[in-house]
Known about the structure:
The chain is mainly alpha-helical and 272 residues long. The protein has helices spanning 2-9, 14-28, 59-72, 76-93, 112-129, 132-146, 182-194, 197-211, 256-267, and strands spanning 37-38, 55-56, 165-166, 174-175, 242-244, 248-249.
Amino acid sequence: MWQAVREYENIDRKDWYDAAIHALDWILKQQNEDGGFPQCVNMDDNGNETKKSQSVICGRLMDAFPKIAKITGNDIYLKKALEAEKFMRENVENRFWYTGAHPDLPPEDFEQDSVYAVVEYWLDKYDRTGEKDALDHAVANAYYGLSYWCPKQLSWVTKPTQCAHSEQQNYNQYSVYNYCNRKIQSLDRLHRATGDPLFEQLENRVMQLFFATQITEGEYKGSVYEAIADPWLERGANYDFTFDGSRGPNSPYTSELVADMMIQLMELGLVK
Length: 272
């Protein structure tokens, strides 16, 4: 935020910069011995850390650190990103265990969105270094992420399942997730980098699915719904369209997700 305001409005909010550096110092202290970073920090009622959480794919962290290194001129953030990359190669890609992007799930639960966090990291590294290995990793991870998708509409499920994926460890449901809209953006970047029409087709399909859930009128206009199916009635009858059982039926996501999506689509030239 400090960088954007300084660049576009010529305002230097040093207090913002200092606050960001203090936050980053705290984040660096959370790094685990394996080089990775935890999804969460476990605290007791007095605010004392009780147990280190296991390392996961911290998608925003890995994406941000190289950019922060460029902004601050401090290579420690790039060094930490490369240490997290080493953890990712050895403990995530080599084990097909992608976790941490879904904030509602425990750190050990694998899910699709961490795959796209990895894709984004490799694309950023490819743009930064031009290393073919980085692009190859981005493509390979995208293909793996595609294996999570349900290829068709399941006949026994009343809500959409095509291109959705199942949360298989905690919730027996199908979801079309697109955290921070990075799936759309990563698929677009893959198409531009490789020329492979498959990635453009997948990008357009995800956008169709995502737009279909946006609320266009009423009190919650601008926010988005998520369709969830419960085909085996694990949670009881008459349940097949809620956001979160704890929040009641038909609870919408916050509108900031839509704002984020529209900004990125404008950057991609897909909307005006």
